[in-house]
Amino acid sequence: xxxxxxxxxxxxxxxxxxxxxxxxxxxxxxxxxxxxxxxxxxxxxxxxxxxxxxxxxxxxxxxxxxxxxxxxxxxxxxxxxxxxxxxxxxxxxxxxxxxxxxxxxxxxxxxxxxxxxxxxxxxxxxxxxxxxxxxxxxxxxxxxxxxxxxxxxxxxxxxxxxxxxxxxxxxxxxxxxxxxxxxxxxxxxxxxxxxxxxxxxxxxxxxxxxxxxxxxxxxxxxxxxxxxxxxxxxxxxxxxxxxxxxxxxxxxxxxxxxxxxxxxxxxxxxxxxxxxxxxxxxxxxxxxxxxxxxxxxxxxxxxxxxxxxxxxxxxxxxxxxxxxxxxxxxxxxxxxxxxxxxxxxxxxxxxxxxxxxxxxxxxxxxxxxxxxxxxxxxxxxxxxxxxxxxxxxxxxxxxxxxxxxxxxxxxxxxxxxxxxxxxxxxxxxxxxxxxxxxxxx
Length: 441
Known about the structure:
CATH class of the largest domain: Mainly Alpha
Strand content: 15-25%
Number of domains: 2
CATH architecture of the largest domain: Alpha Horseshoe
Structural class: alpha+beta
CATH topology of the largest domain: Serine Threonine Protein Phosphatase 5, Tetratricopeptide repeat
Distance between the termini: 20 Å
Strand order of the largest sheet: 1-8-5-2-3
Radius of gyration: 29 Å
């Protein structure tokens, strides 16, 4: 049999119309999907400004260079596995995987899955030419794990017009200097009549048409070229806004198609937007929501809270940013902080009142046993919004928890007798009165 408290809580949740908080995420751009030129410089703590890809040159530039790719995504949970050589990497997966490459293929990528590596872990790729008596190191590059994703990539790019020498090669992957995985491949001249591997242009990728551009992200490429010539603040801001818009569109697509790779790209674009324009509150609020949606975990929660708080600090008068932050606190059961944000918004703008906000507030007051605080707030709110029956229900329930029977029943009777009250709210009020009459004095 349910205890009085359990039954009362059940009625409370029903009466307050407990609704899952619905996001307050800005409207997403309506569009299909793209071949994405990824945000550059996302590969580690010592990264260059986000417009410039990381490019640790080798001592002998004629040997080529190892580049931690701009679309390198670090790990979420202990090993490197599924190591694959490929002609390119797109949407988080190897494209044209092979163990044999023609001399003109440039660059060649090594892609791998990651598991169990914490932030700050250094992953190193060492490339060897092995068709000699003793394997010869031809280059290496390193990158630090900085985020909670599950794959990574390096690529080896030869200088322009150079070709790979025919022979055998090996790539060794190290974790904090210790061997973790390796993969071998071969460079050979294709035999006559053998089918050609797909070129990047022949690979069909999703298209994202934000502005009637069927080929995808041409506008970003044009902006990047423009910034190389003129890195003015205005051009940087334009790139930040464009990447933010791409992040919105990718998030919509990822949600609709349940595409994890699209979500990861959205995260990279949102992160890049905040790096390019750190004073834009919209970018920080959206990034915070993406962090929260990445799943449970202390690090994600910390990063989400930091980003959402940054948005509020940058624009403290924006109600939406405070509601988003309040929603985050509520979901993480930090009820007093959630109430602070909700109260601030409704105190200065009662028109923001909605059943979902009242639902969250009423539940937060109850779960945190802040009955007096809730009664005081809702009484004040109802002076300005007397028709807000959801707030009146919450007030009645909180008053009942304080043993203030006169106030509690009085507020319920106001709902029952108000001609414009919904039948649903009247039914809730009547049910509460019936339940309370059954309680022992």
